[in-house]
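Fig. S4 source data, part A: sequence.
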Amino acid sequence: MNGTIERKGETFGAGGLVSLIGLLLCLTCYGAIVGIPMMIWGHANSYYPMCSNCGTKLASYKVRICPACGTNFNCIPPILRPVI
């Protein structure tokens, strides 16, 4: 069985929490120095790879077989495709 690796985002996970803390720190003058990088890091870490067939979270975008359903990921996911 063939499938693809989907990119799934979550609002209320660890990445969302870090983004919220960064946003609150940006409300102070000196907190913006720490708050802006926290917002960027939190946004980047709020996405994770997911199997298109069963919806299982995957360890990375480089996984070739889903550990839950055994789906083969033969194609390169969109996030790893080279830009031409």
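Fig. S4 source data, part B ends here. The radius of gyration is 16 Å.
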